[in-house]
Amino acid sequence: MISTGFGLTRNYNYFPDDGLEGMLDDSVPHDVVTLVNNATTKNKSAKITLGTPASSTQYRAIFSSTKLGFPRTEVVYTSDAAATPANLQSGFLNAIRSELNLASYLKLTTDGNDIVITSRGAGSTGDFNLSVSGGGTGYAASLLTAPADAPLIPFGRLLFQKPEDTARNCRVIDGPLASGVIRGFSVRTEVHESPYPGGLVGYLPMYEVNALTRGRMQIVPVSNMHPAGQIHVYIAGANQGRLCAAADGVSTVQYTGTGIRIYEPCAANEIGRVDVNLP
Length: 279
Fold this sequence. Notes:
Blueprint: E1 2-3, E2 9-10, E3 31-37, E4 45-49, E5 58-65, E6 70-78, H1 85-97, H2 100-103, E7 106-111, E8 114-119, E9 129-134, E10 140-145, E11 158-161, E12 169-172, E13 181-186, E14 194-196, E15 200-202, E16 208-219, E17 231-234, E18 243-244, E19 252-255, E20 260-262, E21 272-277
Parallel strand pairs: 3-12
Antiparallel strand pairs: 1-2, 3-16, 4-8, 4-10, 5-6, 5-9, 7-8, 11-12, 11-13, 13-16, 14-15, 16-21, 17-18, 17-19, 20-21
């Protein structure tokens, strides 16, 4: 293991020295601050609308999920002879909860007279299927929230802190420079190399993020760049947080400060080096 100077380490067997984005240049000292990826995820949720209570009637719901790992599970509840919205909801809810396969993977709550099911698994890893049959008038299932993976913070991206980001929270730059404070570039380190859905690597939601505030590191610019040229930053899209040499419609903002400087000429989508000296 080789120290990079501020508690960060790099394993040259694990990270061969072939210019990976976000790696520090050991030829100069570095200052690094520890922030937190403030991104959140969306867990899938669905609603069972019970509708008009039907007496002595079977209400069926079928749950399945290959992502969560539980098998197809059918829940059948027969309503009371004198069904009311309250006892229908309570009875069906208890029937679903009695299925041990479901209780570990799905959270059950109520909304008025209806039942809300929320995955305990985050994002796309918590996807599940739900269908219903039988019941009375208006008995149906509907999707409330589609599963969505929270964005990770890739390595070598410019980080931002906005007024709504509490404590040490940060994000990849996503707006005009005046709307927040630049905190540095996300540093690639061995301890934060984590796989994510889609095979990407970076800092996971709510994980600590190492941000370079002073020193030199490797980046991959979107366009050819030169020490004497302009610096623009993508604030949206697939290139968010990456540098380029010219404005690109509404997707970039120009950096006019002195804290970021291209160290040497570099080509588009190739490894380049950037000097950083931020407050």
